[in-house]
Model the fold of this input.
Amino acid sequence: MTRRIRHLLGTRGTRALLCAVGVAGVVCYLFPVYWMLISGLKTSAEIFASPPSLVPTHPTLAAFEQVFERENVARYMRNSLLIAIPVTLLTLLLGSSGSYALSRLRSRVVDVALVLALILQIFPDALLATPMFIMFRHFDLLNTFASVVLATSAKSLAFALVILRPMYRQVPIEIEEASRVDGCNTLQTFWRIVLPIMRVPLIVVGVLSFVQAYGQFVYPLTLLSRQDLQPATVGIYSFIGAEYADWDRVMAFASIFALPILVIFLSLQRKIVAGLTTGALK
Amino acid sequence: MRQGTVVLHVFLAVSMLYLLTFIGLPVVYNLVMSVQDVDLGNIVDLIRPFNGLDNYREAFADPSFRQVLVNSAIFVGANVIAQVGCGLVVALFFGQRFPGAHFMRGLVLAGWILPALVVGALWKWIFATEYGVANYFLSWLGHGRVHWLSDPAVALSSVTIANIWFGTPFAMILIAAGLTSIPEEQYEAASLDGAGPIARFVYVTLPGLWPTLVAVACLVTIYTMRAFDLIFAMTQGGPLDASNVLPLLSYQLSFQRFHFGVGAAVGSFSFIIVLAVAALYVWTLRREEQQ
Done:
């Protein structure tokens, strides 16, 4: 079929047509994201207009101001960051060293460890919530960020181990041998030679762990009962729990929360895509 | 060299101990709880009365469990078919050469990168009966209002649509990676033999892509089995369990009805399903590596 179209339109025409179809598809797909962002810009009267306006007629930041003033968005955002940043650092620390070992050691232990990491990352958070609750009660860590950080890091660590191992494999072993000849021990070689080479994959894994921890919902819901500690996910949830919701404000809150993620994603899009495609299927 | 291996083993041990403490232990603890009589009084004790398979019996006898089991099967099945199918079509489309193809392919991941809870909240608003944009588009087509989230006959479809929207970009990007690994020469050879686009797809693309498709189907199953945030935000599994799935039911049994033992039994039952899929996944990858 492409050939027939190509015959009619020529190569340039075909490419233009494909491009147009692609743009239309992406616009349709991303419509919900657009809808979230512009719903926050509508007035409360416009949000309940029928039919809904596809472009806000009187764009206003009123809903954004209101959620900051009345719904403690700043506090929710701070809590989300206080969970996501430690998770990212912990995941990178353990993940970079653990997967380096997985890529360099060759033994039965490694095979077992690898399968274990693969298996352990599949268990849904919601099913681990009760044991986590009991565990952290024993440690007296309920209502601390530490509990949520420790629980959330486990999943991102399993993911990091699996995704980073094939990337370490691509670091030429000769570089490490040369560094040893120069008198560096394993720790120095790892820190000064290998990690700098692995910069890009580590950034990708860091970003993905951050995104995952930032959006974490089940563990804070279960492990934090104090409202002043809860992150934005729980905040948004309690906002829409009621049957009736002020959607302009909910969407303003959701936009504020999602915007950092979208910005990080758009700026690192190519690296993230490359990282995902090499890691996830290995 | 000796000293080097010691360091590496320490690296490995720290990570593995962490995983075993914070995932392995909870999984085992869950299994133990599923054969115990657990209530609010003894929830923090370590020793509790053993009650055999009573929790499992109670779960299986519950009509809502059966409905949730069917829901989960439909939810996961529809997601796997739609995400792999749409992912394949979109990956093939963006695999063609035209300006912006790579950029656009990456851009759709913007949907997948959003927190699941935000996606749930967003779709709850899109599906709102009175002012939602979904019903507005339907009215264009001359269709009456649909109670997307409050009609028990529709709610499961609504959360399924939202989850397909959410998950497809990831499936697509993995399939796209699989496509690039098929050697160009195979297509050229097929063309020389006179194969048209359809024949090339059937005889070159599909066989080359098959292991990727199986692996992606397994991953989608695993990810869909853990869908919690999205449904929790949209419907809480309601109305009347119409859109409820296993992990959500397990959580509700434990934290809303305080039937911890039965909740753990439902959870352990889900573990078995996820483990079976994961085994298939690992087996597919191993076989691919050996070839």
Q: What stands out?
A: The two ends of chain A are 35 Å apart (CA to CA).
